[in-house]
């Protein structure tokens, strides 16, 4: 097996700090800087970096276009690795070296090259959620305003946001319809009770493994898998942990809609758990997990 050359990259708004096996250097986080970085990589290079909320996207897109392996890590995993290895100091060059060592020690899998339509869909879904969150903040603030000038200003902003959200939702629908793969998957997902277009868009954008992973794997990816907390003879309660928050929230809301009907399998399952004195939230999370498993099964036939 040919070994990879792991290269850690600490990404910030202005620059890219690199650390390979023998040296470290710094390049600007610009189009020309990214291009220069990719040209100097050794054979079998595998880039390792943290998710930064967006500053890493040009580098990730360029690496995928060039066919270079790249892993984008959850920052919490990297900090746990740092503490486990006794590294308390934090600077950009130190973080780059830490990411390099993380790659060498744990050999993370490379990010799959995203489908262009799915990448566009993810941006639209993320933008829609940001506007919805902003609308919620303004609506909550409006309830406590008494001055007509302020109420008028906030109400005007809310109306503007409603228009923008509607436009994005139309763009989401068109993006799905224009891609045959996304359209077929969306049709299968929307056939389930409680799963509408926006929930489907979240699943298509943030859970591409849906229909390809098994029940345990897909539940863990969504953050709906209960994990053991046992030690010795003590058996602690099971808790969900980790996963993708956007997916978990979408499934949680879809499950809320589904459990209102006892005629659905998921609703019947929820009410069965409640009849056995299971707490409402435990039963709801279990219902969301069951819904996810149904969705996962329905997409397996498409592969």
Any overview of this molecule?
The protein has 303 residues and is α/β, with parallel strands linked by helices. It folds into three domains: 5-106, ATPase, nucleotide binding domain (Nucleotidyltransferase, domain 5); 116-178; 204-229 and 240-300, no CATH class. The chain has twelve helices and nine strands. A five-stranded mixed β-sheet has the order 3-2-1-4-5. It has a two-stranded antiparallel sheet with strand order 6-9. Strands 7-8 form a two-stranded antiparallel sheet. Strand 4 (45-50), helix 2 and strand 5 (69-73) form a beta-alpha-beta unit. The protein starts with a strand and ends with a helix.
What is the gist of this entry?
By secondary structure, the chain is α/β, with parallel strands linked by helices. The protein is 58% helix and 12% strand. It contains twelve helices and nine strands.
* Helix content percent band: 55-70%
> How far is the first residue's CA from the last residue's CA?
29 Å
The ordered H/E elements are: EEEHEHEHHHHHHHEEEEHHH
- Order of strands in the sheet with most strands: 3-2-1-4-5
Number of strands: 9
What integer value in Å does the Rg equal? 23 Å
In quaternary terms, these chains amount to single chain
CATH homologous superfamily of the largest domain - what is it?
ATPase, nucleotide binding domain
> In percent terms, what proportion of residues is strand?
5-15%
Number of domains: 3
Helix tally equals 12
Topology:
Blueprint: E1 5-11, E2 15-19, E3 24-28, H1 31-39, E4 45-50, H2 57-66, E5 69-73, H3 75-84, H4 92-106, H5 116-142, H6 148-177, H7 180-190, H8 197-206, H9 215-221, E6 226-227, E7 230-231, E8 234-235, E9 239-240, H10 245-258, H11 265-275, H12 280-300
Parallel strand pairs: 1-4, 4-5
Antiparallel strand pairs: 1-2, 2-3, 6-9, 7-8
């Amino acid at each position: 097996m040919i070994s990879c050359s792991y290269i850690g990259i600490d990404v910030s708004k202005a620059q890219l700090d690199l650390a390979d096996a023998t040296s470290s250097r710094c390049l600007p986080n610009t189009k020309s800087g990214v291009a220069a970085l990719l040209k100097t990589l050794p054979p079998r290079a595998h880039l390792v970096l943290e998710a930064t909320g967006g500053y890493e996207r040009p580098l990730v897109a360029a690496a995928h276009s060039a066919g270079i392996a790249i892993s984008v890590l959850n920052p919490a995993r990297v900090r746990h690795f740092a503490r486990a290895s006794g590294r308390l100091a934090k600077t950009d060059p130190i973080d780059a070296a830490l990411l390099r060592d993380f790659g060498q020690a744990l050999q993370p899998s490379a990010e799959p090259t995203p489908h262009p339509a799915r990448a566009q869909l993810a941006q639209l879904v993320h933008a829609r959620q940001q506007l919805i969150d902003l609308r919620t903040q303004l609506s909550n603030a409006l309830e406590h305003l008494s001055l007509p000038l302020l109420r008028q200003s906030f109400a005007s902003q809310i109306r503007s946001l409603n228009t923008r959200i509607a436009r994005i939702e139309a763009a989401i629908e068109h993006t799905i319809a224009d891609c045959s793969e996304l359209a077929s998957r969306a049709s299968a997902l929307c056939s389930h009770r409680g799963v509408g277009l926006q929930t489907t868009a979240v699943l298509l954008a943030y859970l591409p493994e849906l229909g390809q992973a098994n029940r345990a794997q897909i539940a863990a990816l969504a953050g709906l898998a209960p994990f053991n907390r046992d030690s010795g003879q003590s058996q602690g309660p099971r808790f969900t942990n980790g996963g993708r928050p956007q997916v978990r929230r979408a499934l949680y809301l879809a499950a809320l809609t589904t459990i209102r009907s006892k005629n659905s399998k998921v609703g019947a399952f929820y009410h069965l758990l409640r009849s056995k004195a299971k707490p409402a939230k435990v039963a709801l999370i279990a219902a969301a997990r069951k819904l996810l498993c149904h969705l996962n099964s329905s997409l397996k036939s498409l592969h």
